[in-house]
């Protein structure tokens, strides 16, 4: 390789983001020939990409060290196709690299994620034939569990090959393969050569026919061959309305597993584990306080743990409740608002009504009874006055009083209704760590 080419590469390396350099520039070679710097590229698509995006940078480099030379990008003849697509190419993992932090041992198990954990653990023993669709809100462990399977498979003595991609990776590689006429190689690599395909964030599959069609074909092949497939998404298959129904049905061909937001006990265990990982054992009152107040995703818990340790170390204090309070007040939205909107959301979900229904003038039985329950729970769990609760639903204070009385009456006459309300109360208590004792109205109803 010519000295000039090495200089130019160094120049580009300094100016381009590392991943861009690694994918697009590092694999290239260059040499001088007949008054030209000839840069060999693997295919036409790369050539066009480089010209479109980095030509001026190449020219700038050439003006420094290669005055008088012109520039030519030449497509190599016999280069193994698509090798440059992937930043990592170890023998048994294609696509993205697994984080070594994401193991089964590091995954804290609780009621919210036990089923998913067991399903993935079983898959790691022998992936053959498993089709799993894992759904959860963001930051609740989808990638952690998927990569735990990947890590377990590659660390054992077996021959399983795993292809780990996001839906966006899949799409962009597919488009590249199509543009460069290398579809066969793409299929070889992603379908035929892998035993486990993990496709993350399938809600990002674009609403483009050909991508969906190719994915459907890939899945048919993989299912037929009893290979394992894992999909992850923040949405359930039936919610992916931009996808063709045939692809949706293929996505839901296997087991659909959900991870729920962590309950109070699991949050405590996660805080203990994450702080231990940072070499600290938090006092129990700090663990409980954080678990009660950090109700977002697990990323938020991780960042709070690290933030608390950093804060304590800067102030030369040990981790304590006062510091935890300070941190929580900075990162969490005001309590009342958050609690109220969750109460309303739970009521909507449970009684299958919308927020709009609740604030509407509708007197339909199902809607007005749901509205009454929302008022009852808000009164019980928040510090809001009767009139402020009324305002939430465009009603006055007297309507709220009536709602509270009606709910009380039904509670004593209908066991199934009581069961529903108790279920909602448990959900709120778990999510917020609010106990009966801490509620504004410990007894069923207090009038004001
Ligand atoms: N049960 C758990 N035990 C320990 N750590 C967890 C658990 N669940 C998630 N985490 C941690 O929380 C962080 C976020 O998890 P992860 O990236 O798997 O979420 P995700 O559901 O894939 O989110 P997104 O949809 O945003 O990609 C990671 O650092 C992960 O290790």
UniProtKB/TrEMBL annotation:
Q: What is its main location?
A: cytoplasm
State the protein's name.
Chromosomal replication initiator protein DnaA
**One MF term in GO for this entry?**
lipid binding
Organism in which the protein naturally occurs: Thermosulfurimonas dismutans
Pfam families assigned = Bac_DnaA, Bac_DnaA_C, DnaA_N
The positions annotated for binding ATP are 139, 141-143
Q: Which residues form the AAA+ ATPase domain?
A: 128-262
- Stretches for region Domain IV, binds dsDNA: 313-448
Q: What is known of its domains?
A: Domain I is involved in oligomerization and binding regulators, domain II is flexibile and of varying length in different bacteria, domain III forms the AAA+ region, while domain IV binds dsDNA.
Q: What is the lineage of its organism?
A: Bacteria, Pseudomonadati, Thermodesulfobacteriota, Thermodesulfobacteria, Thermodesulfobacteriales
Which region ranges are annotated with the description Domain I, interacts with DnaA modulators? 1-78
Localization, UniProt? Cytoplasm
